[in-house]
Design goal:
This protein is α/β, with parallel strands linked by helices. It is built from 9 helices and 8 strands. Helices cover 41% and strands 23% of the residues.
Length: 230
């Protein structure tokens, strides 16, 4: 869950519609790399048809993609506007259930999920180790965590912060921008075993087919995706 603050909640509510529309464009153009990476990781490492928690689901596009691949998904987010965008795309069904998150602990009951998906969340968390401990507890034996982290080595991120910082206020709210070695220690220290990654992605180069591979460099991709097993 993004850190609990009025400014953070306001930002996510205000940008929910814009974020949903821009994601839909990428999906229509078959260029939604974030979604493709998370779904591919779930298919490869999670129990087929298993129960997945999408923690901090935003407008729900990844949750729906997972549901389309046969997983049962509990998708939660603290932003009511994000959940409104998610349910506008698809009403709750037996495969995808959207809900506004209140108490995070209520979503992380021990031994509940076969997998947890967490996209662009932990960079907003004041106590990342505590969140990872909650994930570890909430997973069933041999469950997997599929999570992204904000990549401190990304030169594109550094450039974007300098050029677009004022028009991209989410940068100011991110409190955990980490090198892979640091994030790896957090995961291992919690008890997780790394299965795959990091796979780096997300930069301006994703827009251009001939240049999209540049985002896969740890010096360019602003996010890294990791799969870890309990």
């Amino acid at each position: 869950m993004p850190r609990t603050s009025e400014s953070c909640s306001t930002l996510f509510d205000e940008t929910a519609g814009q974020f949903a529309r821009s994601t839909d464009v990428l999906i229509q153009q078959q260029r939604y790399k974030r979604g493709s990476l998370f779904v591919a990781a779930a298919i490869r490492h999670a129990v087929p048809g298993g129960f997945i928690l999408d923690y901090g689901c935003g407008p729900g596009r990844i949750a729906c993609l997972l549901g389309d691949r046969g997983f049962r998904v509990r998708a939660v987010d603290p932003s009511p506007e994000m959940i409104r965008e998610a349910t506008a795309l698809r009403s709750s069904t037996d495969r995808v259930d959207f809900a506004t998150m209140g108490d995070p602990a209520a979503e992380l009951c021990p031994g509940t999920y076969d997998a947890i998906v967490c996209s662009s969340v932990i960079e907003y968390i004041l106590e990342p180790a505590k969140l990872l401990q909650g994930f570890y507890s909430a997973l069933r034996d041999s469950g997997v965590l599929i999570i992204s982290f904000a990549n401190r080595l990304s030169l594109w991120r550094a450039y974007a912060e300098l050029r677009f910082g004022r028009s991209a206020p989410h940068f100011a709210l991110q409190v955990n921008i980490q090198r892979w070695a640091v994030f790896q220690k957090l995961l291992v220290g919690t008890g997780f075993r790394i299965l795959d990654g990091p796979i780096f992605f997300e930069s301006v180069f994703d827009k251009y087919n001939k240049l999209s591979r540049l985002s896969g460099s740890r010096w360019i991709g602003t996010l890294g995706l990791v799969v870890a097993r309990k």
